[in-house]
């Protein structure tokens, strides 16, 4: 029966859908059970006991009378148990509320990690309510130019972000490739380049769109300055002869998601009307905020800041919030996104703290045995997906401990430590920040010899940079390595004992480091500028 446009009454189909929606709302019951069975508090974890089935859907025979038509609908019974990553709401004795996440379910016992810490939680008077939903982040293009904390809440006093979608940070949402490592079958091999404006990276270790390549650094080295410089200068290199669209290679189609974990807190909230105490060697958070604001790059950056005095649990979800936001930009807005994560060592330490609180059997150096799997769920979210024009390129930064080890006359951190060791297995290369170069006032102190980009060959060459790009890079590697050997020989026998060829190698070594590797913090050397890079 067709509806008459002049008739204010609803058609039969419209009335049926209206009744159907009302029935669904009224009779599909989803009560939230309130637990008061907190068995204990261990570090950032809350242990619940006697956790049972908490929601049922009742079976009812419903008679719909739609213009004399009698219909019956049956709603089936469905029991739902607490699930992994489910969000819970804790009500403390003073009435304040905190959010948590289900970490593990064992029979009738559930382990919940609390985002804002467990201080003030009383086992006898705390109420815990299961929401039935997982952790989701509201995403929108308006998030560009905004600053959020490690939980995804804005801290820049800007206007409220109206969400275009709510995406699960741990799983797929609405059929989109969001929240989990990319299916290898749907991956596209990276073939185009992202330039950073840093000659040691662009010429010697070129980065492809969709690549994951970490920066290995150590305490006291300028990895934060390098990360900020990449954010200022990074851009796309359009492949010659291929035009995917007017905006594909345009600078407006390039965005950066920056996530800082465990950064210092002194002065970061001076403009936000909040005061926090804490003093460390470097005001990392304020450095990033001011740098992005002063050079105008903040408008294309989404910044997530997990501070040093924020809860440890929040540090675990911060990179996942950042990557989910990046996936929205890349796969729904079809932007090319660069994700910078610093410091992954702080993330791994938070993972170790949670593992110790769960009393799990530790692995190497006390880190959990599943850290390789956990890190892979972060790193493997970089890449390109078939059918989507966007890409996610990932540059995680980590600080290696035991800096001071001498390897081939060079001072390096401990690359055998579990964090860089596992990261190197998962990612596609590495960029080394060297202390010797830093001590000699060479910036950026990138040691190109142990550095490697495994996807460089597909991002350079004729049609992209230069036909002889690979050959020039290989020759620079070879001559620089020979110069290093000559410098080591000079330290043993003296310069007088060197032959003319060794002296020329030493001269090349000095010029290479002072004129090629070294550049200003605000100096961008573009890959197509042959005078600068070659």
Automatic annotation (TrEMBL):
Presence of the UniProt keyword Hydrolase in the record: yes
PROSITE patterns: ATPASE_ALPHA_BETA
Family: Belongs to the ATPase alpha/beta chains family.
The ATPase F1/V1/A1 complex alpha/beta subunit N-terminal domain, residue ranges: 81-132
Example of a GO cellular component annotation carried by this entry: proton-transporting V-type ATPase, V1 domain
Swiss-Prot/TrEMBL GO biological process terms: ATP metabolic process; vacuolar acidification
Name of the protein in question: Vacuolar proton pump subunit B
């Amino acid at each position: 029966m067709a509806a008459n446009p002049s008739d204010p009454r609803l058609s039969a189909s419209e009335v049926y859908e209206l009744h159907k929606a009302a029935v669904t709302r009224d009779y599909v019951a989803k009560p939230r059970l309130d637990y008061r069975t907190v068995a204990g508090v261990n570090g950032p974890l809350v242990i619940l006991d006697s956790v049972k089935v908490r929601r049922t859907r009742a079976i009812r025979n419903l008679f719909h009378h739609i213009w004399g038509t009698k219909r019956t609908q049956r709603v089936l019974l469905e029991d739902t148990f607490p699930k992994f990553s489910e969000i819970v709401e804790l009500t403390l004795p003073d009435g304040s509320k905190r959010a948590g996440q289900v970490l593990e379910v064992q029979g009738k016992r559930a382990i919940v990690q609390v985002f804002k810490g467990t201080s003030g939680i009383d086992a006898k008077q705390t109420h815990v309510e299961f929401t039935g939903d997982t952790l989701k982040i509201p995403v929108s293009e308006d998030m560009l130019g905004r600053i959020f904390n490690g939980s995804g809440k804005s801290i820049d006093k800007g206007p409220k972000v109206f969400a275009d979608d709510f995406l699960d940070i741990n799983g797929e949402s609405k059929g989109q490739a969001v929240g989990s490592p990319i299916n290898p079958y749907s991956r596209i091999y990276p073939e185009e380049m992202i330039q950073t404006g840093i000659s040691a990276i662009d010429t010697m270790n070129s980065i492809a769109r969709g690549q994951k390549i970490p920066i290995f650094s150590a305490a006291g080295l300028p990895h934060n300055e390098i990360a900020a410089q990449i954010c200022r200068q990074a851009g796309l290199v359009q492949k010659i002869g291929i035009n995917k669209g007017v905006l594909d290679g345009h600078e407006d189609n390039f965005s950066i998601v920056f996530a800082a974990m465990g950064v210092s807190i002194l002065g970061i909230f001076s403009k936000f009307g909040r005061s926090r105490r804490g003093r460390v060697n470097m005001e990392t958070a304020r450095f990033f905020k001011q740098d992005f604001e002063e050079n105008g790059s903040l408008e294309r950056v989404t910044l997530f800041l997990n501070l040093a005095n924020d809860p440890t649990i929040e540090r675990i979800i911060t990179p996942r919030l950042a990557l989910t936001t990046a996936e929205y930009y890349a796969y729904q807005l079809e932007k090319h996104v660069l994700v910078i994560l610093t410091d992954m060592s702080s993330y791994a330490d938070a993972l170790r703290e949670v593992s110790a609180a769960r009393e799990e059997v530790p692995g190497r150096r006390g880190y959990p045995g599943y850290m390789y799997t956990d890190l892979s769920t972060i790193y493997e979210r970089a890449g390109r997906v078939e059918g989507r024009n966007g890409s996610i390129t990932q540059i995680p930064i980590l600080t290696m401990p035991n800096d001071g080890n001498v390897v081939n006359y060079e001072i390096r951190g401990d690359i055998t430590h579990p964090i860089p060791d596992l990261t190197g297995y998962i990612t596609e290369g590495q960029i080394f920040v060297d202390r010797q170069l830093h001590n000699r006032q060479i910036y950026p102190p990138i040691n190109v010899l142990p550095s490697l980009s495994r996807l460089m060959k597909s991002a350079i060459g004729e049609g992209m940079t230069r036909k002889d790009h690979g050959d020039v890079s290989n020759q620079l590697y070879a001559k620089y390595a020979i110069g290093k050997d000559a410098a080591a020989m000079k330290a043993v026998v003296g310069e007088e004992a060197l032959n003319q060829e060794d002296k020329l190698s030493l001269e090349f070594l000095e010029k290479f480091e002072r004129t090629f590797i070294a550049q200003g913090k605000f100096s961008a050397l573009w890959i197509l500028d042959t005078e600068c890079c070659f």
